[in-house]
Amino acid sequence: MSENLLWRWRDVADVGAELAALVALNLSRNRFSDDPDPGLLGLRFANLRSLVLNDLGYDWARLMAVARGLPRLECMHVADNKITQVI
Asked: Is residue 82 part of a domain?
């Protein structure tokens, strides 16, 4: 789902509702206008193990907000974001 002009996390969550067994997801180079709902992402992507969030324009805190809701996440790629410090 990279480079697909996605702009709402709700739309991503809706896709997750249809793909319960999904273990890898690439959302790189989309421009989300809202903040993710970690609880909703966790419900819709309960089996997700690998997430690619390259070039979203996010800082570390916002990237961690996405990761917080994904209980089985093992690997997350975050290249080319606005990471200036890791907290």
From this structure: no
Indicate the number of domains in the chain: 1
Q: What is the pLDDT of residues 2-50, one digit of tens each?
A: 999 899 999 999 999 999 999 999 999 999 999 889 899 999 999 999 9
Spacing of C-alpha 13 from chain mean position: 10
Q: Is residue 71 one of the residues assigned to a domain?
A: yes
Long-range contact list for 35-38, CB < 8 A, 24+ apart? Answer: 35/9, 35/62, 35/65, 36/9, 36/65, 36/66, 36/69, 37/9, 37/10, 37/13, 37/69, 38/65, 38/66, 38/68, 38/69, 38/70
Q: Specify whether the CB–CB gap between 44 and 69 falls below 8 A.
A: no
C-alpha distances (whole Å) from 60 to each of 19, 75, 82, 85, 86 are 27, 15, 7, 7, 6
Give the amino acid at 11: D
Q: Note whether residue 55 is domain-resident.
A: yes
